[in-house]
Design brief:
The chain is mostly helical. The protein has 3 domains: 93 residues, Orthogonal Bundle (Multidrug-efflux Transporter Regulator, Chain: A, Domain 2), CATH 1.10.1660; 52 residues; 82 residues. 64% of the residues lie in helices and 6% in strands. A 3-stranded antiparallel beta sheet has the order 3-5-4. A hairpin with a 5-residue loop joins β1 and β2. The protein is globular, with a radius of gyration of 21 Å. The N terminus is likely disordered.
């Protein structure tokens, strides 16, 4: 659902470039009903918005997970109607969180096309500091983290000092690593009775991996939900205290 403050402004060519796919792919997904139709503007030109971009990114992520188009159709049909671009981005992050990282190489022109904007050298430096990209060995070439790039590009316009963003990233990494360490211990202890508390054989290791593979998507979703609620409560309490 597109709000009045976020009116669709992307042409099909711009949408494809931002998403890193071809125009043919966008139109194919549209004919399959995987993408909602564009808003038709003057001269019968279709315009796409942030929801289309986020849904397209989710579809691509599901395909990378090995899902067929028929399975993706069923998956998308189960999503609540009217999800915002932010909701779809969070959903994609949950899907991508248990997939292997897949860095991509891109030229400066391809990078700016994916970012949807021109990037100054200062912007490149900030994106590199946030971990969204790294300068490759070849001139004018960058190694991108596709999942992180879109988020970090949005952070370029947030009126927060880069040092604060990096400090927040450090806090998140430290706490999530501690949570991951504790959850891993729990998974390990869960299978210990069957294989012996001191055992470390291949069967026990395989059992731990199998349990973590089944639990990981659920744990990630639980962490995101819990963090969203906690952040809202903390922000509400902070602003209420200032108002008083």
């Amino acid at each position: 659902m597109t709000t009045e403050t976020e009116r669709p402004t992307l042409t099909v060519d711009e949408l494809a470039a931002r998403a890193g796919v071809t125009v043919r792919t966008v139109r194919f997904y549209s004919t399959r009903g995987l993408l909602p139709p564009p808003v038709i503007g003057p001269r019968r030109v279709g315009h796409y918005g942030s929801e289309h971009l986020s849904r397209l990114a989710l579809i691509e992520e599901l395909q990378r997970q090995g899902m067929t188009l028929a399975a993706i159709e069923r998956y998308l049909e189960q999503l609540p109607p009217g999800l915002s671009a932010r909701d779809l981005a969070i959903h994609r992050a949950l899907v991508a969180s248990w997939a292997p990282d897949a860095p991509e190489d891109a030229t400066r022109k391809e990078l700016e096309s994916r970012a949807g904007r021109a990037l100054a050298e200062e912007d490149i430096d900030r994106l590199a500091a946030m971990g969204a990209l790294a300068r490759a060995d070849r001139p004018d070439t960058y190694r991108l983290d596709p999942a992180l790039l879109r988020l970090c590009v949005e952070l370029l316009d947030v009126p927060i000092a880069q040092e604060t963003i990096l400090a927040a990233r450090t806090v998140l990494l430290e706490h999530t690593r501690e949570a991951a360490r504790e959850l891993t211990r729990m998974f390990r202890d869960e299978v210990s009775p069957a294989y012996g508390h001191d055992g470390s054989g291949p069967e026990r290791i395989a059992a731990v991996r199998s349990l973590s593979a089944h639990m990981e998507p659920l744990v990630v979703q639980a962490l995101v939900t819990a963090f969203q609620r906690s952040l809202k409560e903390e922000l509400r309490a902070a602003f209420q205290a200032e108002a008083e």
